[in-house]
Amino acid sequence: MNKDCHCCGSDYQLVMIDVYKCVQCAHIYRDYQEDLIKYHQTQYRKGGSATRKENEIGPDGNITQEFHNQRKWIVEGRLKMIEKYLKPNFFCLDIGAGAGTFASEIGDKVNKVDCTELDAGLIAESRRLGFQTYSENYLTLDFDKQYDFISAWHVLEHMEDIRTFVEKTFNDTKRLLCIEVPLLISLKGTGRRRSLTSPNTPKYDGHVHYFTSESFRNLFESHFEILDMKEKMYKKIAQALNLLDSSGVEIVMQTMPPFPWHFGGQSHHNLFVNHDEIE
After folding, report:
1. How far apart are the C-alpha atoms of 179 and 138, rounded to whole Å?
2. Helix or strand or coil: residue 242?
3. What global pTM score does this model have?
4. Helix 213-220, helix 162-172: angle, nearest 10
5. CA-CA distance, 151 to 160, in Å (whole number)?
6. Is 170 helix (H, G, I), strand (E, B) or coil?
7. Quick one: which of 190, 53, 42 has its CA closest to 118?
8. How many other C-beta atoms are found inside a 10 Å radius of the C-beta of residue 207?
């Protein structure tokens, strides 16, 4: 295996069978021993807790509308995060696009959206929706153009060679790259905590990497200017909460629109919509 951290180049330390942690930036690497591409083509989400619901796939094996319905709130939240960066003339690429649900969400906001995907059933649905969908591993694709906006939602953690991913996306986009990855612990330190397990088991979830904010910055800052990371907003919340006397008080969440009107004035809210972070 690679003995150097994929993000900062420091040493890895073995923490359990086939799982390593960087001594410097705390990046986690899970050394899967089988063919990772084949796994995502044939096995990913085919068993365990990640299995798709029965009504998301029809009797003919095709993706149903329910598949898109179940992900509607997720892609709406993602659009809210990035809509300010999109322009009507943009050519976009969605890496690991699934069945084209997110591509459909932004389709009327930009000029064109292309997709990449490995799962045959998802590829078929994405193409049915009218998107040019590449079925090859993204790292092997050779485009004859550059995209204005590239997105990869919960994709990077599934790739072995993340340094090549950074270099390739840098060459493939002339403007913007948007990345979303799951963490073992959310940036604010609360909510869902993922269990770290050995990858070479029947319950493998396809995750090769788990990032920290430091390892993520180490990986991307040499090629990209990072415009926004949600950790900035979490720090603001933490600072605000520290000013409150919470003795004997339970703080609960409230569902709010992003730009509500209260008492004759309009508020502008920073809303957190990722279920991993608000549990």
Report:
1. 15
2. helix
3. 0.80
4. 50
5. 18
6. helix
7. 42
8. 19
